[in-house]
Amino acid sequence: xxxxxxxxxxxxxxxxxxxxxxxxxxxxxxxxxxxxxxxxxxxxxxxxxxxxxxxxxxxxxxxxxxxxxxxxxxxxxxxxxxxxxxxxxxxxxxxxxxxxxxxxxxxxxxxxxxxxxxxxxxxxxxxxxxxxxxxxxxxxxxxxxxxxxxxxxxxxxxxxxxxxxxxxxxxxxxxxxxxxxxxxxxxxxxxxxxxxxxxxxxxxxxxxxxxxxxxxxxxxxxxxxxxxxxxxxxxxxxxxxxxxxxxxxxxxxxxxxxxxxxxxxxxxxxxxxxxxxxxxxxxxxxxxxxxxxxxxxxxxxxxxxxxxxxxxxxxxxxxxxxxxxxxxxxxxxxxxxxxxxxxxxxxxxxxxxxxxxxxxxxxxxxxxxxxxxxxxxxxxxx
Length: 382
Description:
With 382 residues, this protein is α/β, with parallel strands linked by helices.
């Protein structure tokens, strides 16, 4: 089969690999019909995630058609059209029985640090991902769900990570009716978090970024008030000024490890790799939210420490909430919102790229060329 293969930082290409076999009676093999490149895939592409091995296939956002199932699989059959959450989880451990699927204890040798994720380095279990023609799906009775007939492929693939994660970010903010919410980052997660904040009762939604085309999308898609941080001497001071000098009630970090805005933080994190990520967006969140406010962290950071302003957070009495999204837990409510017309997930898709051109897709997305917001990979396109 053809699959995206990692060859080192900033180097990916399409190679022939063996079609993955059934390794366990609970496995399924899925023929991928659409995958996406996630902003967190860029952390792998840029060489920032520990134990990312040459030869790995990335891709934790994908949908497809069931090609084969193991002997124990009861809920799926060949030919089913399925969406697969990025979390790999057993469904029966201490954490899964509490709905904490992202924290499953049985799917990763490093389970005390992180759960299992498709195509996200051996730090996250070493599973190949879905930027390929076929992918092995463990615990097939637990994670995948049959895609409703009314749902499009592009909406479905957005439900495997990006939309649930943005929605989860707003959930963790514990938004009260009328709250002012500031979202750092106008990428896919930030856009969905901003849109979801309205659904949870926000009275004002502000989005911060430095890319004008993404801020424009935040205005048209999420109906947010937007500010370009490069136009202000200190974006935190500006945010205080426009929120009665108290600060926002809720801040959502939808940027994570590769945040721009502070050269020292950026260089020490992404070039020298002395931190698990540049915490500038998170530090802006800490400084700009009001005392006793809430911060939700959806941006991905590496396992190393980062220079977070924890003392400021403590002295302001902030609540910091964070986790990888438990994707499947979000689906029932998101299905309702989509059917009701409140959410149209595929509105943020900007590029559809054949698998053969995935190297160009990574470059395009990484360099923010051609006003790229969300690229989808089509294995069958030519």
